[in-house]
Amino acid sequence: MFALQRHVKQALANLRSSEVREDAGRVVRVGLIASSEPELGQIETYLVPPHLSAQRRAESASRLIRGGDAGCDIEIYSDSVLLPSHAFSFNPDDPDTCGRRILRQREDLMLPLARNFFPLRNLAVQQIIRSVAKENALFCLATALPDAIPGLSLPWAVGEFGSDAAFLTMNQIRMAFLLAAASDRPVGYREQRSELASITMGAFGWRALARELVGKIPFGGGLIPKAGIAWAGTFVVGQSLERYYRLGYGFTRAERRDAFEDACEQGRQIAGMLLEGMRRKAARRTVFNLSAFKRTG
User: Fold this and answer.
1) Fewer CB atoms inside 10 A, N or C side of the chain?
2) Predicted TM-score of the model (pTM)
3) Are both 278 and 146 inside the same structural domain?
């Protein structure tokens, strides 16, 4: 326990919440282009829904530029207008598809977009949770198969980690910063001390629960259980944090257990797909190296 806390503390020395705050606080401007006033109104109503407070609606609306201009960070066109390659098409019958496409293609703007536009918030939160859960599963596979992808590096992986648990815990804390920022909540070690303490102490509970459940869940052999459990544990931590930032309370212990058991099957499938992808890449690299050897030989 004390060794894990020491390793997490060392890793967190390079994890700066201030960078997340600065990213979320960026001013973002969204251009709206449509062929008619009703179509413009549909896009505006999606991005600035009427159930928000008057102050919140005014703040969000101030980020929208009708007709767009050169200073816009992104442009949204109604689906009745010819779409430039850099813009995003809005279908009023399926507006979230436009939102998901924006967040996938402009991840650099995810936090300020989620912070300023309420309908994009849940989309961003779910994307963050699944992305970090996938990173943790991939980390478990990569550390177990160091030769599968030589030189594999994750851009946010800093410092030396004394154990997989230390890295997974650090990355869950990073996720807590991102989720708070996307949810327009205070970000920082002091501001989020209760959530971060829960994550750190929960690292031991997840391992104990995983040992208890692994015999009940048909994970299969090899590396899948470890990576699948890393995905499931991170996913449940993220969902609990999402509820906390949305409603003010997270999962109970019983809810965490049930959610973890439910998520393990999906974690197993995702870990299997990641492992297969790593093996295909390793196989392609082997073929390439053999071909190069034959040419030079």
Assistant:
1) C
2) 0.83
3) yes
